[in-house]
Amino acid sequence: GLTIEARGDNLKAGAREIAIRDVFDGFPGHRAGIQPGDLLRKIGGREINSAADVMNATFYLSIGETVNFTIERDHEMLQLPLKVVERPSEKALAALKRIPATSSQER
Fold this sequence. Notes:
107 residues; globular
């Protein structure tokens, strides 16, 4: 239960930052401690600079598998293990409670 958004240009040419937009209550990202506004840097050791990188890093993951997400929060890198679950439908996601960002997370 996470959604992402691309943000302004990163230091690398053509690269962008991928930020966590929404975290859904009770899902693995929430339980692992991911928060709205966190910057997604790696999934399972693969660098993340675009939405396509997220798709490529998660495509072959299996339900029940645990994968490390490396996120940046307040200039600190954190590795958070997440257990892969089945993605809910868009209708189900719309009904879920989103975790609000705190003022320090809004960038």
